[in-house]
Model the fold of this input.
Amino acid sequence: MAHIQIINGPNLNLLGKRQPEIYGAETLADVEANCAALAQELGLEVSFFQSNHEGAIIECIHAARENAQGIVINPAAYTHTSVAILDALNAFDGAVIEVHISNVHKRESFRHHSYVSGRADAVIAGLGTEGYQAALRRMVTLTAG
Ligand code: CA2
Done:
């Protein structure tokens, strides 16, 4: 069974508690519960990690080198700033899917560039929190065999 590490970056612990007009009403706990239920259906093992600290996210990606076949990552604001997270993902051999809840391309121009997209096998933006589930469905194919 493929193991998928789901990683959420800074401020996503506030999901559902502020700015519902941009990020929706679901909390991060709701997203995790929905992903866990879908993963069971799809025959995937999933783990969840959220941190407001860049180094902690990098450590989680390093650990995934040993224990995961895929990473689903919403790096949040680090998407637009972090060469260090890109470097960590470049050291990971499995599948990588970048998820953004909002359509970053419809927002401020500083959100249009992602360091992570150059490494990601797929990029999902603007599907709301359903984007995480779309990523898991695609992971079935990317991690098969
Ligand atoms: O659309 C996304 O998923 C983002 O990755 C979210 C980031 C933002 O910096 C990216 O440009 C796009 C921000 C996450 C902050 O999440 C909050 C959720 C609720 C309330 C406040 C912040």
